[in-house]
Specification:
By secondary structure, the protein is an all-beta fold. The chain has a single domain, classed as Lipocalin, CATH 2.40.128. About 0% of the residues lie in helices and about 70% in strands. A ten-stranded antiparallel beta barrel has the order 1-4-5-6-7-8-9-10-11-12. This is TIGR04219 family outer membrane beta-barrel protein.
């Protein structure tokens, strides 16, 4: 399968460190994302509308993030993020056949997307305005299974599998003496006809070690892997709870 890989060596110098954490910092959070799904999936030249034809609906969208920050200016900070998106539904193939399944056929479908991010970043600003810049390597695994509903019916499987480099940006603005802040973060790449972006904006409240966050997230995947292609978008509100040390 076609892989899109970027070597990190030498690239990190583009994000020259201008600030660093005063002390060691460790944090983690878990979140739930209530997302709506739209777009198309292509298998060997035939396409299906995953919203209107397959009627996919959210089953579970879980997200886990952990980070480690340190006071060594030369070395980047580290952030790891894992997202698991699972959607299923029952629908009907549209006016054109999809991977050998005839138009008008009743089908059951499952869409699973797993993402594992490793982000190396620097703190460019670290006061009431916080700004991080870095690079992310995203391991993307996506699979759409479409089954004809009758016994012995045809089963179609569409998969994408890639390691994708992305730019990383995070900004946060702290309101003095309140524990309240607003911010946003995102990853982005567009290369050779493929493009991915993953952005969120949020409001946050911190009390002692506890961090509460709520906001809106949008993710778009337009990626082709051999004869399989996913062109999907997910968006909706999210909420998270975390601990910082």
């Amino acid at each position: 399968m076609r892989k899109l890989i970027l070597a990190f060596g030498g690239s990190m110098v583009l994000a020259a460190p201008l600030a660093s954490a005063d002390v060691l910092g460790v944090g983690a959070n878990v979140s739930y994302w209530d997302s709506e799904l739209s777009g198309d999936v292509v298998n060997k030249g035939s396409a299906v509308d995953i919203e209107n034809d397959l009627n996919l609906s959210s089953d579970s969208n879980a997200n886990f993030t952990a980070y480690f920050e340190h006071p060594v200016p030369v070395l980047p900070n580290v952030r790891v993020n894992y997202a698991s998106i699972s959607q299923n539904g029952s629908g009907q193939i549209g006016l054109e056949a999809f991977d050998g399944i005839l138009p008008g056929t009743d089908v059951d479908s499952e869409l699973d997307i797993d993402q594992l991010d490793l982000t190396l970043y620097y703190e460019v600003l670290d006061n009431w305005v916080n700004l991080d810049l870095g690079l992310t390597a995203r391991k993307l695994d996506g699979e759409l299974i479409v089954r004809e509903t009758f016994v012995g019916g045809r089963v179609s499987e569409t998969t994408v599998d890639a390691v994708i480099p992305m730019g990383y940006l995070a900004a946060r603005f702290d309101l003095p003496f309140t524990g309240v802040s607003v911010g946003g973060e995102g990853n982005l790449i567009s290369y050779s006809g493929d493009s991915l972006h993953d952005f969120n904006v949020y409001g946050q409240y911190e009390i002692s070690l506890l961090q509460l966050r709520a906001g809106y997230r949008q993710m778009s995947i337009d990626y082709e892997d051999d004869d399989d292609k996913m062109d999907v978008e997910l968006s909706g509100p999210f909420a998270s709870v975390g601990l910082t040390f």
